[in-house]
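Appendix B. Worked example

We walk through a single record from start to finish. Start with the input: the chain for Bleomycin resistance protein, Thalassospira marina, length 140.
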Amino acid sequence: MSLKTTTHLNFRGQAKQALGFYQSVFGGNIALVTYRDAHAVQLEAEADQILWGQVASSEGFRIMAYDVPASLPHDQGVIPFFVSIRVTDQAELKGYWNGLCDGGVVVADLAPSGWSPLYGMVRDRFGVTWVLDIEVAYGG
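Next comes the structure step. The output line below is what the pipeline stores for this chain.
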């Protein structure tokens, strides 16, 4: 048996733009299904918003997103989650960092930490907080 987890982000009308942005940072293929495509339109103004979307790369990056319809409550809260990116290559990490910082706000500078040779935290232009670090082997 194999198990994979995928972060699924909820937006209010920004899912398509967010997924396009993440594709520009991490690469991969984008798949989008609108409410219109799924014959699930509740409000015509939301028909072209995203019912389900995903970016997936052959390197293992995968994220999903959708637009919460106006008929449902949506409160992103204050940092309700982090999306963690761990890699073994510093150049790769710095590329993702630079991409996510475009239009974002640095929460913790990309620098050595007590648990990783390179760690940083950024809130991207869509309000999603990402933690990026170099993966290291831990005893145990």
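Two observations about the output. The radius of gyration is 17 Å. The mean pLDDT is 92.
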